[in-house]
Amino acid sequence: MKTKLFIILSFFVVFIIPFFSFSSLSKYQFENLFLVAKLELDNTPPEIKLISFSNTNSQYPKYANKTHTITTRIQIIEDYISQINLDSNHINVKVNNEIVSVDFKNISCISESEHIYDIVFTNVPGDGNLSITFLEGTAIDTSMQNNVEKTFYSNILIDNTAPVTIFSEELVADNYSKGTITVNEGVQPVNGWDISSDNMILSRNFSNPIEYELPIKDFAQNPASALVSIKKASNIILEYSAYDAGTNDTYVVTAGNIAGEQVITSGSICKTEALFIKTAGNIDSSSLKGRAFLYTYHGEGSSNNCKLTEYRYYYGYNPQNSWRTVNKDYRSYITLTGPAFTEFGGTGVNYSFKNTPNPIPEEIAKQYLFGLSGIALSLDDYSEYSIVYQIYVLGVGWLPCKYNGEETMYSFDKPFSAIRINIVPNSQRQYLIDYWNADN
Fold first, then answer.
1. pLDDT at 353
2. Any idea where the domains of the chain sit in the sequence?
3. What is the per-residue DSSP string for 251-316?
4. Is the pLDDT of residue 247 over 90?
5. Tens digit of pLDDT for each residue in 44-87?
6. CA-to-CA distance for 114 and 252, rounded, in angstroms?
7. Alpha helix locations (H) across 62-198?
8. Residues β-bridged to residue 421
9. What ranges make up the beta strands (E) of 136-222?
10. Which residues contact 423 (CB under 8 A, 6 or more apart)?
11. DSSP 56
């Protein structure tokens, strides 16, 4: 506050004309009032007042990391300001009361009349509670008085450390597996997963084997992931096998695994002539359908018999442009290990067939140039699950994943050498696709 002191000098001048007698009398008497000085005394230094802290982490504003921008809004309480020093020499940003180096992006005046300013900074390092200190000399008034050093606590936790996750699997009722992810700090909810009240345990049940990376973020948006690896679940059973030309291998694999992996690892030129699929467990026996493009040397309109099943295969879709139902199309059953599989494509595509019209020349047949070039798989009901699949083409690699009836093919004359298929909950579909596509 200002204290105004008026110094008033009262001056009385009395002119006395001496008169020699027994009594004296003033003939003239003057009383004059003079204003000598008017002074303004300032006894209170400038004061810095916090208005607000804000954070670009809009979803969880009480948490931030280096990527977020922090804005501190302050007001300087002073009528007579001489100097304002809002700079890195007068402002200390602290994490857990330790001064840290940050990037000051902007310091701007919001209101000149009210002396309101925004201090904007980012790239805050460390872990702990954020505070900001304004040193003495940040604001100076006309009486050359400095503000008193003041610290403001933001209620924002700086967190630059990613979560650490541990995954575990437990077989539960009805042949489901419960996947559990334990985290060393609170994390954001994840679509399709249950989360504990302290946000440190994620869990969900799975009906069949599956493996993928689940992305996880803490409240400060630090990314991490957990490898979800379900191996014990058998509520839904999906098995398939690739018959590779030249090897005659028919290794049966379960959901998510690679059929034809031995061809990839050996660098063989063998192609997949036929694909065998079956389902079991808690899935409708006719819910899975598929169609495949079989590339043969014989040309458009030609056909031949599969060596294993005597099933007749054709150039083009087999049968052309129609869907075939797994576990229901009895013409295509073949016994590999126990119950019958449904076959797509046909074996013998790369044999010379000397006793047939337009036989494949022996030198071409030995190059194993022919087989399944494209595949599409679908489910009758997509309300809960999707079917995801991916093929490997020699010299090209894994093609982008397809799902729910989409066709995957590199080109008609480029048969694939391996495939992987899985039935996945819709909420987890994109995680699986991203995981498989990372192999491209």
1. 66
2. 2-42, 47-158, 165-230, 236-437
3. -EEETTSEETHHHHHHT----EEEEEEEEEESS-TT-EEEEEEEE-SS-TT-EEE-TTT--EEESE
4. no
5. 999 999 999 999 999 999 999 999 999 999 999 999 999 999 99
6. 77
7. none
8. 389
9. 139-141, 150-158, 165-171, 177-183, 194-195, 201-206, 210-217
10. 207, 208, 236, 238, 255, 283, 379, 385, 386, 387
11. S
One-letter amino acid of 23: S
One-letter identity of residue 55: N
For the beta carbon of residue 411, count every other beta carbon within 10 angstroms. Answer: 11
Q: Phi-psi bin for 269: left (phi > 0), alpha (psi -120 to 50), beta?
A: alpha
Are 360 and 354 a contacting pair, CB within 8 Å? no
Paired tokens of 299: 């040309």
Say whether pLDDT at 2 is over 50.
no
Token code pair at residue 271 = 């192609």
Q: What element of type H or E holds 431?
A: helix 429-437
CATH 3.30.1490 describes domain 47-158: no
Tokens at residue 68, please? 């977020």
The answer to whether the beta carbons of residues 253 and 239 sit under 8 Å apart is yes
CB 122 within 8 A of CB 70: yes
Pick the closest to residue 233 from 196, 259, 208 (CA basis): 208
- pLDDT beyond 60 at 155: yes
Q: What radius of gyration do the chain's Cα atoms show?
A: 42
Rounded Cα distance, 246 and 272, in Å: 10
Task: Decide if 246 contacts 270 (C-beta within 8 A).
Answer: yes
Question: Which band of pLDDT confidence, cut at 50, 70 and 90, is reported for residue 245?
Answer: confident
CB within 8 A of 360, min separation 6: which ones? 297, 298, 350, 351, 352, 353, 370
72: which strand partners? Answer: 53, 119
